[in-house]
Amino acid sequence: MHVSDGDTLKANCGDGLIVVVRLCSIDTPEQAQPYGAEAREALAALVLNKSVRIEQTARDRYGRIVGRVFRGRTFVNEEMVRHGHAWVYHDYCKEPEFARLEERARRARQGLWALPKAKRVPPWEWRKLGKGKARPVEKSWRPWLLAMLVAGVLAGGAYLWVTGRLDISRWVPDIIFRFLSA
C-alpha cells in the first residue's frame, strides 16, 4: 500500500497488480496546500501496510478506481472526515452521514479545521486557482553555465577561423568551405 496524497492510494493486489484508488465522497488538501502533508500522513496511518477492502463506486477521468475503502470494520473515507483530515466533496458525495461528521469536526476544530480560516481553502478551489500540486520553480544556474560554455566555444572557434588560426577544411565538406570562403 502506498499513499499518494490524502485521498489517493496505490494498492498492491498481488501478482504484480497495482491499482490506484481515489477515496469517494472526500477531498483532501493538495500536498502544496496547508494541511496537505498532515492529511497524507493521516491516510497512511489508516492504511499503510494494512489489508484493505475496496468497494468500487466509479472510475474517474484519469482511469483511477473511485471507491469506499475499508480496513476491517473501519470505513476509511468516513474516518478521514470524522477527524477533520478531509472535506466532504459535496458535488460527488453519496454518504449522508459525511456532512454531519464534517460539521462536528469543524465545531471541534479538529484537523484542518484548526487552521486559520484564511488557510482553509477547499482543494477544488485551490486547483481552480491553478495552484494544484505545483511546487515553486527552483532557479538554477546550471543551464546558464552550459549555455555560456557553448557560446564561448563557438565564439572562440569563430575567432580562430576568421583570423586564419583554425583550419576547418578537414571537417567541412569542400562545397561548404568554398561557399564560406566566398
Automatic annotation (TrEMBL):
The chain crosses the membrane at residues 143-162. InterPro entries: SNase_OB-fold_sf, Staphylococal_nuclease_OB-fold, Thermonucl_AS. Keywords: Endonuclease, Hydrolase, Membrane, Nuclease, Transmembrane, Transmembrane helix. It comes from the Bacteria. Residues 1-115 form the TNase-like domain. It holds the Pfam family SNase. SMART domains: SNc (SM00318). Signal peptide: none annotated. The keyword Transcription regulation does not apply. PANTHER family: EBNA2 BINDING PROTEIN P100 (PTHR12302), SERINE_THREONINE-PROTEIN KINASE 31 (PTHR12302:SF3). This is Thermonuclease family protein. It comes from Azorhizophilus paspali (Azotobacter paspali).
